[in-house]
Amino acid sequence: MNTVSTVKRYEVAGMKCYVCAKAGKDTEAVGICIVCGMGLCMEHAIREDTQVWEGGYPFPATKTKGKIPRILCEECRTALKR
Amino acid sequence: MVTLVKRAVAECIGTLFLVYFGAGAAVITLMIASGEKTSTPFNVGIGALGGLGDWIAIGLAFGITIAAVIYGLGRVSGAHINPAVSIALWATKRFPTGDMVYYVFAQIIGASLGSLLFAASVGMDAVTIGGLGATTPFPGISYLQAIGVEFIGTFLLMTAIMGAAVDRNATPGFAGIVIGLTVAGIITTLGNISGASLNPARTFGPYLGDLLLGGSNLWGFFPIYVIGPVLGAVCAALFYDWVSKEE
């Protein structure tokens, strides 16, 4: 298995990195920000353990016991940390 | 999860709104219709203005308030705002005993404050003409019939809660509007039979307000609005668990 085919396997079919596209570059996306849905390349995707709330009516919402890994873009990551 | 005290406060405020706006709508209807001649003894004033439309209006006042409380406070406390719902979730082992007891007390306090606040907002006519929106069986309806009607109404309400909110496969985000409209529909049909309380706290508040402010003493009817709703909600929760369980 060569490097190119390995990368291809993780590309999001047909989607480009939004951040790169804005800078005039054409880079394949390897992930999608779970908050805003932005396509992200390996350079701009941030995989981070995030605190998640679950539940709701008719039960109080609760934090999950552990943090859950999430793919985020820089903007959403910053917003979640506020 | 926020502390139990905060959740109890949320239940208290939610039930206060339910009684203020829901039972308040019944009071206002009776006050507007005051002095109107009614065509039948079965019509005590609600229905004098627009027939069943009066009950639709009251039902929607309840339903929209319930939807607002569910969307506003649902993630904080669960927005039960009804002891029958808290007891049914407890009976099916979905809700801890200690929390249930706190919730029921908070709901009763909230309903009482809602009634007193409405009387303070409107004046003594709310008590003497509107009876603070207290529920009683209508003329010709027996004690047992009223219990049965409250049972059936709350059974439908709790079934909607189970299917639209408790079930893990329920579509998120719709529970508030579905449950609000369910209550509005139930009140439209059952309002002129038993009062369509579906909620022991919703009846407790106006009963206490009437007693404290010199209105009618209606406590003899109170068991109707405990037995019917609590049994109806518990049976609906058990029924839903049985009927939805995959073999």
TrEMBL record, chain B:
It holds the Pfam family MIP. Its main location: membrane. Keywords: Membrane, Transmembrane, Transmembrane helix, Transport. Gene3D superfamilies: Glycerol uptake facilitator protein. One of its GO terms (cellular component) is membrane. The chain crosses the membrane at residues 12-35, 55-73, 100-123, 143-166, 173-198, 218-240. It is a multi-pass membrane protein. InterPro entries: Aquaporin-like, Aquaporin_transptr, MIP, MIP_CS. GO terms for molecular function: channel activity. It comes from the Archaea. It is found in: Membrane. This is Aquaporin.
